[in-house]
Amino acid sequence: MRRQQASVLGFFFISLLLLAAYYFLQSPYFGVSQVTVTGISLIKEEEIVRLSGIQPGENILRLDQNRICEQLRFHPQVEDVTIQREFPSTVQIQIQERKPVAVIGQAGVFVLLDRQGILLRKLDSLYGIPLPVITGVQAPLNVGPGQVVSADGLAAGLKLCQEMPPTLLARVGEIHVINSSRLVLYTTDSIEVRFGPPDEIAAKSQALLDILDQWMKNGSTPKLNYIDISSAKSPVVKPKEETKISTNAVHPAVAHPTTRTAGKTGAAGNGH
């Protein structure tokens, strides 16, 4: 008798749970009415919402969060995604964007790359793009958005973009890759900087900042032939029509150039 009563009670509770589950899964109270997107600065919110596939009124309990995350990761500028449900009817999508660090050429146009060398998108122009242009390398034609660009010497240029202090990188218009162990920079003031291999980046960067700041203290930027910081411990400054001198004797009385073009690409007119 007790066994029969237990069976009846068990059936009753299971039925109750099934009815409750059916109610929650079908109730319009849990229909999605709002999708919010955070963490974006480069991607449009409506683009993320569209790619998520979340439909207005779709039951929030039935959302396949793994599927939504996978769909969004197909976007070339999305590095990671987190989905949160805020009951009863709001879905929050948190995006971690791939941040562009440099520009390179591809068959006559320019493209943005992130720190891993992933091609993010093509650019109509360099105007307003405050990033250095890496020259001496090209993105292959068969590489599209979301794919990794493989080119000899590119990793050296990207390493420099990642490790150089932002205050100094903002003054670099072009990074020319001669080979993976020989880089030449051009500042936004058209100063050639012989960087050498992409090592001791912190020390070389500080040496370069010290040299540039030393000239600017006098209210002028020198007409330099080049700055050589391939050895961080013994940097060399070569003014135009002057003999090679050390940074301890930088000539103070050279006129400031009136333009801000950079290097061989003229890329520093792009918003530095």
From TrEMBL:
Transmembrane regions: 7-25
Major localisation: membrane
GO cellular component: plasma membrane
InterPro entries: Cell_div_FtsQ/DivIB_C, FtsQ_DivIB, POTRA, POTRA_FtsQ_type
Biological process terms in GO annotation: cell division
Ranges where the POTRA domain occurs: 30-98
Localization per record: Membrane
Pfam families: FtsQ_DivIB_C (PF03799), POTRA_1 (PF08478)
Keyword tRNA-binding in annotation: no
Name of protein: FtsQ-type POTRA domain-containing protein
Protein's organism: Heliomicrobium gestii
